[in-house]
Amino acid sequence: MPPTRRNLPQLLGDARRWFDEGLLAAMEAGGSAPVSPTQAQLFAVLDDEGTTVSELARRMAVTRQTAHQAVHGLVAAGLLEQVPDPASARQRLIRRTPAGRSAHRTAHDVLARLEERLAERIGKDLADALRAALEAPWGPPAP
């Protein structure tokens, strides 16, 4: 039986894991507090001025409870803080602490190095084409 061709979502998931694993390993090797892939994803979708837990959950495509757990772990690690939302007395914003901003800058640098490493491995033209394909507007999915 011929090998099954993997679909594009599976391949994109593998690519995401490659970056996540490289990022988390580099951050931990650099002395950063260990974080989970979910916590790293939360960090990536957080606005500089702060974001509500509900909005974080929507952006991450996870439950509010999952986002809330990730927030609490990062608050305990000193990377995030909760502050009152000036637009709503009932909500709180999640934002990076000074240590969190530093970790975010470091993560940005690590990801840039991982992109360079990928370009070295698959070739700059393929890496550029991959970026162009992912940045192109895809439109809504077909029903």
Automatic annotation (TrEMBL):
SMART domains: HTH_MARR. It holds the Pfam family MarR_2. It comes from the Bacteria. Residues 28-127 form the HTH marR-type domain. InterPro entries: ArsR-like_HTH (IPR011991), HTH_MarR-typ (IPR000835), MarR/SlyA-like (IPR039422), WH-like_DNA-bd_sf (IPR036388), WH_DNA-bd_sf (IPR036390). This is MarR family transcriptional regulator. It comes from Streptomyces alfalfae. The lineage of its organism: Bacteria, Bacillati, Actinomycetota, Actinomycetes, Kitasatosporales.
